[in-house]
């Protein structure tokens, strides 16, 4: 709505150089009124009319960039919810398998306690670990349901069946961050506004024709009153233009800093995710070795349980880093405005 309104204003201002036609009603006496049509034409405005057209065009650009920013934010919110749901789902699946294995260990220990081979304290330790896994599994299931419910509330259709995370490569290239684009558009609008104010101190030449007769009349006068404070006002207008340029430079610097931060985060998380994946593989190898040694009677049940717990914890860390990396790429894409195409919007 804001963009449409700005476009209509720009369309209206694009014809501001044309003469205007309007009615004029004047009282010749207390009882008589004369109605006529007046045609006004501005012959020279000191650049005010052109600046008004530039201001209207810049207003359209500001509205368009704001729409792109809002849409990118909305897509970022939706994708963040999706990632949170996917992470919780993946953890729940992993914990579901861990629960089955831990229940098997509990059954073995229960039988050993019944036979007097093992102590009850070992069984209590396993049951405590099992209860904690149950709690973690329930928490992840609830988190997944909550995130998906929020996502479905934003979507025009249910997204419960959507699964998986793509490996998206986010490269800056020549992309200009939306924050810088917005600052550029606001700079253009501020400069156009300053030109309008400055032109108000220059003489405006206009001509009028009245249908009731009298020929063509002219007028030469500035729009703004000329007084002692005019010099200060002109200096203020110049300062406004300088400030607009500096805001663009500041926006560029801040955007570059944020993009550099996100890039470093992505690099670090990529390395950490690869290391975590390798550690998970090593933990699984150790678990398989302990399991084989247990089957051969060389290890106790509690030895295998301890190694299994280490493997499960490392698997959760790997999942967390996987989705932290995806979230970091998402943040960088939002900063660059890549989550929604402005042309498509």
Radius of gyration: 36 Å
pLDDT < 50 runs, ≥5 residues: none
The general outline is elongated
Strand order of the largest sheet: 1-2-3-4
Major sheet characteristics: 4 strands, antiparallel
Distance between the termini: 13 Å
Helix share bin: 55-70%
Helix count, per DSSP? 6
The number of strands is 4
Give the overall pLDDT as a whole number.
84
**Structural class, please?**
alpha+beta
- Strand composition percent: 5-15%
Q: How are helices and strands ordered from N to C?
A: HEEHHHEEHH
Give the key terms:
single chain; about 350 residues; alpha+beta; four-stranded antiparallel sheet; 6 helices; elongated
What do you see in this structure?
This protein has 6 helices and 4 strands, in the order αββαααββαα. The protein is an alpha+beta fold. The protein has a 4-stranded antiparallel beta sheet, with no helix packed on it.
């Amino acid at each position: 709505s804001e963009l449409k309104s700005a476009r209509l204003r720009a369309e209206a201002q694009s014809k501001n150089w044309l003469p205007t036609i309007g009615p004029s009603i004047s009282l010749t006496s207390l009882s008589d009124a004369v109605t006529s049509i007046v045609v006004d034409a501005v012959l020279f405005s000191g650049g005010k009319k052109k600046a008004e057209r530039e201001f209207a065009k810049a207003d359209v650009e500001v509205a368009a960039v704001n729409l792109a920013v809002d849409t990118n934010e909305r897509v970022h919110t939706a994708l963040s919810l999706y990632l949170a749901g996917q992470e919780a789902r993946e953890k729940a699946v992993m914990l579901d398998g861990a629960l089955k294995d831990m229940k098997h260990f509990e059954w073995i220990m229960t039988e050993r306690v019944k036979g007097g081979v093992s102590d009850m304290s070992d069984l209590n330790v396993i049951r405590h670990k099992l209860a904690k896994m149950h709690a973690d599994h329930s928490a992840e299931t609830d988190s997944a349901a909550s995130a998906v419910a929020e996502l479905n509330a934003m979507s025009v259709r249910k997204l419960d069946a959507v699964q998986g995370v793509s490996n998206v490569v986010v490269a800056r290239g020549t992309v200009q961050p939306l924050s810088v684009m917005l600052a550029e558009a606001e700079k253009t609008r501020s400069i156009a506004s300053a030109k309008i104010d400055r032109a108000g101190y220059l003489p405006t030449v206009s001509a009028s024709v009245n249908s009731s007769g009298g020929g063509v009349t002219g007028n030469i006068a500035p729009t703004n009153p000329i007084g002692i404070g005019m010099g200060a006002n002109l200096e203020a207008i110049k300062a406004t233009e300088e400030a607009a340029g500096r805001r663009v430079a500041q926006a560029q610097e801040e955007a570059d800093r944020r993009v550099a931060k996100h890039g470093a985060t992505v690099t670090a998380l990529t390395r950490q995710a690869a290391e975590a994946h390798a550690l998970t593989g090593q933990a699984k190898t150790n678990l398989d070795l302990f399991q084989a040694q247990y089957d051969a009677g060389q290890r106790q049940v509690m030895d295998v349980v301890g190694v299994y717990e280490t493997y499960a914890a490392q698997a959760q860390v790997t999942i967390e880093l996987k989705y932290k990396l995806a979230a970091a790429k998402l943040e960088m894409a939002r900063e660059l405005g890549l989550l929604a195409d402005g042309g498509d919007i």
